[in-house]
Amino acid sequence: MTFTSLTLAHGGGGFRTERLLREIIFPILRPGKSAAMDDSAILAAPGDGRLAFTTDSFIVSPLFFPGGDIGRLAVAGTVNDLAVVGAKPLWLSLGLILEEGLEIETLKAICQSIRATADEAGVEIVTGDTKVVERGKGDGCYVNTSGLGRVLCEPPPSLAGARAGDAVILTGTLGDHGAAVVARRESLALDSPVQSDVAPLGRMLNALVERFGSAIHTLKDPTRGGMAMACHEIVEASSVQIELDEAAIPVRREVQGICDLLGFDVLEVANEGKAVVLCAKEIAEAVVEFLAGFNCGKRAAIVGCVVTSDHPLVLLRTRIGGERLVAKPAGEILPRIC
Amino acid sequence: MTFTSLTLAHGGGGFRTERLLREIIFPILRPGKSAAMDDSAILAAPGDGRLAFTTDSFIVSPLFFPGGDIGRLAVAGTVNDLAVVGAKPLWLSLGLILEEGLEIETLKAICQSIRATADEAGVEIVTGDTKVVERGKGDGCYVNTSGLGRVLCEPPPSLAGARAGDAVILTGTLGDHGAAVVARRESLALDSPVQSDVAPLGRMLNALVERFGSAIHTLKDPTRGGMAMACHEIVEASSVQIELDEAAIPVRREVQGICDLLGFDVLEVANEGKAVVLCAKEIAEAVVEFLAGFNCGKRAAIVGCVVTSDHPLVLLRTRIGGERLVAKPAGEILPRIC
């Protein structure tokens, strides 16, 4: 008996769940590994250091978009959440919530993408869970990934670590992920289709922290809410003010075009393969040069600076020389993006 | 501006997401704690022992049922998955997937239950994520909890640890959770309403492992697929055969009544506050006595034994003296139960 689409019985915990796991999911995610079904993975604690622990659920629509898919997004998102607290990502859990009727070929494609991205990031999927919800719920597939990593330096970079005088560095172009998803969703006919930037940044950010240590004050991946929200989280946690320089922020022409067309502020659009780096001004050029040595850091640039202030504001020096407040995003412009 | 139900904007990552977290969720889950919003929690690794890591998504319908709710279920389920591999549960992550339109009062009740159950189990919610999906997609609320614990003994109990001659012990009555949920779902009018058994078993199972060490060969919580699936997983992982004694299995009269009414085999019904314990026959009586010292182990009983076999079967000696094969559940009888 073969099956080509999911039924509710695949989520019931009986032999159909087991077949789904043993025939479809495990061979892709853990080829050649024992299919031990114990309820927890058992892992050797890494020395006497500290651990980083994170979780994220992914609910992107559509499931596949130019440059990526929900599987790559789920692995990269969790790897990046570990990397921005200065941790080396080691182990991931995978919680799948699947919709009745989902094509098995679709599920396999998602699992293959999870596997490939985990390999790319050097992490292992060590435990998981699979549930099935009724047709019409769940939107094909929701993915939760939780992650564990080893903290590489003390004190680790944190949102509260920014200081007056820091440079604000962006590791690459802004808005690619959100623009790619919305262009696919709106079926925009574009000359040069925009690709999502979704990528695991663990290797680059780990190397950065190993090279510069605690001189890296803050790392943040600007996902939901984009660069605007990332900056607001930093200024509030650190009680500082950030001034961004619009002309210095790298944005692809076609991404800016989509934002102009749909009325989005590129500062609010989600990114899934970028990080904001705050460090002392003196090492900023060296940090940019270091980042540029990595594929996902090629377009790194200094885009602003941190100043003392009683008001935790984010300001933008515009191209035409003016200055405007960057508002905290309200958040409804692009739902279901990551 | 107050809000009484969720909007998609609450999931957008902007200031509405922040308000949801800071005004509703954090005050319940982490009262008095800093509302640090870094992407990962940073935790001290416990000595040089091993860690257990698990994940589970919960999709129960209805969200509130006699004896519990999705919040208690999510914490207990993950605590129990750690406890059955012989680990002391320490830290939990919380991934909420909320449906647009969910009443804020409902969300608060779920968070309060999560908090109370975490306190009861002695675990801390250290990191989380909140997403909002369109009306009609998420069934109110899905909850993912991942968990980390410290392994208490080596080798830890495992599905593959069962040996011929072991006694099979159940820590209490069978079928309470599934029966309670389905009775509420079907609006069965019952004289004595059935309560779910949902409970964190960490303290009891940790104490058991600390008392008897590696003489506890296997622990398993019989959730989806029930006792039948739990036994099948054990016989397959351990290459043994299990013989259960129907007359020895504790089942509440009202639970048996619901099963008879709806045509369910109580062996296949989900439990959320029970464990199957396999240990050498010689210590079985002492284990039962030890379990009976805990509230959730009061009705512990020896319900079967493990025998050598080339065929990993589960057999049931029936009340009338016959013997039947216990099939591996197909899994569709009770969807959306945990």
Question: What does this protein look like?
Answer:
- The structure is a homodimer of 338-residue chains.
- Chain A has eight helices and 14 strands.
- The mean pLDDT of chain A is 92.
- Chain A is α+β, with helices and mostly antiparallel strands and 338 residues long.
- Chain A has a seven-stranded mixed beta sheet with strand order 9-11-8-12-10-13-14.
- The interface between A and B is large, with 90 and 91 residues.
- Strand 1 of chain A pairs antiparallel with strand 2 of chain B, so a sheet runs across the interface.
What topology emerges from the helices and strands here?
Two copies of one chain form a homodimer.
Chain A: H1 15-29, E1 41-44, E2 50-58, E3 64-65, E4 68-69, H2 70-83, E5 87-99, H3 104-121, E6 124-133, E7 141-151, E8 166-170, H4 176-185, H5 202-212, E9 216-220, H6 226-238, E10 241-245, H7 253-262, E11 276-280, H8 284-291, E12 301-307, E13 314-317, E14 323-325
Parallel strand pairs in A: 5-6, 10-13
Antiparallel strand pairs in A: 2-7, 3-4, 5-7, 8-11, 8-12, 9-11, 10-12, 13-14
Helix pairs in contact in A: 1-3, 2-3, 2-5
Strand order of the largest sheet of chain A: 9-11-8-12-10-13-14
> What is the percent of helical residues of chain A?
25-40%
Report the order of strands and helices of chain A: HEEEEHEHEEEHHEHEHEHEEE
Number of helices of chain A: 8
Oligomer: homodimer
Query: What structural class do helix, strand and pairing data of chain A support?
Result: alpha+beta
- The gross shape of chain A turns out to be globular
Instruction: Give the tally of β-strands of chain A.
Output: 14
The overall pLDDT average of chain A reads 92
Largest interface: A-B, 90 and 91 residues
* Low-pLDDT regions of chain A: none
Span of the ends, CA to CA of chain A: 36 Å
How much β-strand is present in the residues of chain A? 25-35%
What is the CA-atom radius of gyration of chain A, in angstroms? 21 Å
Largest sheet of chain A: 7 strands, mixed
